[in-house]
Amino acid sequence: MAPDEPDDVPPMACPRCSGATIASTVRTAIWRDDQLVVVEDIPARICQECVEQYYDEDVSDALRLLMERGFPTAEAKKELQVPVFSLEGRIRVRSELPEDTYLD
Known about the structure:
By secondary structure, the chain is α+β, with helices and mostly antiparallel strands. The chain has a domain at 21-75: Ubiquitin-like (UB roll). Helices cover 12% and strands 26% of the residues. The longest helix is centred in the middle third of the chain and has 12 residues, at 57-68. The protein is flat. The N and C termini lie far apart (46 Å). The mean pLDDT is 89.
């Protein structure tokens, strides 16, 4: 058990990589149509190896209900101004090396 975990939280191995997980809180960004919503203070288990996040059934239900309600603006904890970037015109296409080129 991690030092900061409550005694009532059982240890859990990551189903993806079998690494150790710890209890923490996370935030996630969710797109709904053209609206970006950030949900904070989500209890989760986080794998120390692959950083995968796992939610228990109660947390998943709370997230689902919030989504079904359409993320009512009146219930938002705060609002963020988010800059939006584009990679259009920023992607450099690499030229391929001839087949007989060897790199050491």
